[in-house]
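ingest -> validate -> predict -> emit
validate: passed (alphabet ok, no gaps, 116 aa)
predict: started
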Amino acid sequence: QVQLVESGGGSVQPGGSLSLSCTNSGPFFHKFTMGWYRQPPGKQRELLATITQSNETVYGDSAKGRFTITGATRRNAAALQMTGLIEDDTAVYYCYLHPLGFREYWGRGTQVTVSS
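emit:
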């Protein structure tokens, strides 16, 4: 079964950088959209970035210019490089996988805290 394994969350000071990684440890899908969302405290979940098997990317407004998504398409994996972090980036970050023709899958989430 699909299991999204996330890693890389933690605490960082404002202006710092973090990288998040996500890998599907279950069956491999050739066609998919994979990416990252986040949910700040008391707010709705929002899109950060997605990538397809063809390396087509989409970025949410919060991620543009500061975050970069990359994919390892042969492994259903995606990484999110985050730079210039600010306190408003504090949230639970969720990995997302939507194989073409199948349901959506979510990781358990990893906490990112930006604080001085």
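The chain has a mean pLDDT of 95.
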